[in-house]
Amino acid sequence: MKRFLRWCIPLCMLSAGCQDTIEDPYDFYFNTPNLGEKAKNIEILYSDSTFVQVRIRGPVMERINEAGQAKEIFPEGVEIEFLDRYGSITSWLTADSAVRKSGDKIVTLRDNVLMRNTENEELRTSELIWNERDGNIHTTKYVEITRSGEIIQGFGLQTNEDMSEYEINAVTGRFKSNEIDKDFQ
């Protein structure tokens, strides 16, 4: 591929009437910062063994190369759906903006972040970080979880993709007393 690009890029530059002042076209093409593209109304599907596990939608996605690492930016919002093996949605995640670092497989969601699951539990925060590799979602920011008559607040959270188990740090909130008694017996 490198040999092909060394030949092809200078030829394209000559045919366009440009001067070839680039020492290594391969480095120019693959390592130039901020080479990017922009797409509208996107939908990305992640699958494993033919089963779709995650669906990502957004009105705009920009892909840039910054310091040798590709980033996908969703500046106008993003919606993520986590699915089970049968294609049923287990949880939803929305935010006003998001950045995905392709190499690290880390997605940082910011501003008006809302996560819901099928148990009608809602998580609200200003920032969530999703690790695609292990399915861990966490934050150190203020969080608020609302569920059937309870509001749980804290700073810092760790959960899984379907929000079936979560751990909150520095917890405060309004709890149903009979539910607390069951947990501590």
> What order do the helices and strands follow?
HHEEEEEEEEEEEEH
Q: How is the main sheet built?
A: 6 strands, antiparallel, barrel
Number of strands: 12
CATH topology of the largest domain: lipopolysaccharide transport protein A fold
Radius of gyration: 22 Å
> By CATH's scheme, which homologous superfamily of the largest domain applies?
Lipopolysaccharide (LPS) transport protein A like domain
Number of helices: 3
Q: Short description, anyone?
A:
By secondary structure, this protein is of the alpha+beta class. The protein has helices spanning 2-15, 25-31, 177-184; strands at residues 36-48, 51-66, 69-74, 78-83, 89-95, 97-101, 106-117, 122-131, 136-147, 150-159, 166-168, 172-174. The protein is globular, with a radius of gyration of 22 Å.
Structural write-up:
- The protein is built from three helices and twelve strands.
- The chain is an alpha+beta fold.
- The protein folds into two domains: 1-32, no CATH class; 33-184, Sandwich (lipopolysaccharide transport protein A fold).
- The protein starts with a helix and ends with a helix.
